[in-house]
Design a protein that fits this description.
The chain is α/β, with parallel strands linked by helices. Helices cover 30% and strands 27% of the residues. The protein contains 10 helices and 14 strands. The strands form 2 sheets. A 7-stranded mixed sheet has the order 6-5-4-3-2-1-14. It has a 7-stranded mixed sheet with strand order 7-8-9-10-11-12-13, with helices on one face. β1 and β2 form a beta hairpin. α6 packs across α9 and α9 runs parallel beside α10. The radius of gyration is 17 Å and the shape is globular.
Length: 257
């Protein structure tokens, strides 16, 4: 049985866990080990069950706790090879022990216990940013976050997925009228920024996703309103979905048997 949870998603920290009850893996680790342990405990997942971390990109809210966790558990950390080659100083600051840093190229399949997974390119202002595609017993789960635009390749992957974790970062009107300076607004809504609610819902429709569940993730605390996203989503899809709200996100849990 596969179990998964959004441990946290947003500017304060990001992490997703996938577990069969004995072997667990993380996508991103933006928390202290103590906080990660607390969040895992909410789902009765022991910290010691984690056997690998897969990283989307090198922004602190996604990698803040990677090095400490890797040193504590002596586990591998998978990065895109482009990120490792182009951002060596940031990677070195994480303090990952020798032999535990595992660069991979897009669509290079790696195995972690009963899981197989690969990364795919995204468009973000962190060179070598990727999303991750996890397979377990014939079920596919896709994590697509921190990307300013989407691609046909990503849509094809989503069409085959059982569960989709999809960024819906901002509402365009809230961003435009909000307190952020102009340069930051341009970054967020640019091709190397984040997906808006409208872009996320368009991706959902255009991909032909017909899986079990959609989790809308990485909502901005300042530039989005979960209620607006819920209303917009109900208007375009009848698929089951969950909007990961602030301080509620890590309570989301699912099972695939």
């Amino acid at each position: 049985m596969l179990q998964y949870a959004v441990l946290g998603s947003g500017s304060s920290g990001n992490s997703y866990v996938f577990s069969d009850g004995q072997v667990s893996l993380l996508i991103d680790q933006g928390y202290s080990v103590a906080e990660l342990t607390r969040r895992l405990a909410a789902f009765s997942i022991p910290l010691q069950s984690i056997q690998a971390v897969c990283v989307t990109h090198l922004h602190p809210d996604h990698v803040r706790g990677v090095g400490v966790l890797c040193r504590k558990l002596s586990i591998p950390v998978y990065f895109s090879s482009e990120a490792v080659c182009t951002q060596q100083a940031l990677v070195q600051k994480l303090g990952i022990p020798e032999g535990r840093l595992m660069p991979v190229t897009p669509f290079e399949v790696v195995s972690v216990g009963p899981f197989s997974l690969f990364c795919f390119g995204t468009s973000h202002d962190s060179t070598g940013s990727v999303g991750w595609y996890v397979t377990y017993a014939g079920e596919q789960l896709m994590v697509l976050t921190d990307t300013g635009i989407t691609s046909e390749e990503q849509k094809q992957l989503a069409c085959q997925a059982s569960v989709l974790f999809l960024e819906a970062n901002y509402d365009p009107k809230m961003l435009k009228n909000g307190p952020y300076p102009a340069y930051l607004k341009r970054r967020i809504d640019g091709r190397f920024g984040h997906l808006s609610n409208e872009q996320a819902l368009s991706f959902l429709q255009e991909s032909g996703f017909r899986g079990n569940h959609v989790y809308f993730i990485h909502l901005s605390d300042i530039n989005n309103d979960p209620t607006l996203l819920e209303e917009a989503a109900h208007a375009v899809t009848q698929l089951p979905f969950t909007v990961c709200r602030k301080n509620q996100c890590y309570g989301q849990w699912g099972e695939l048997v």
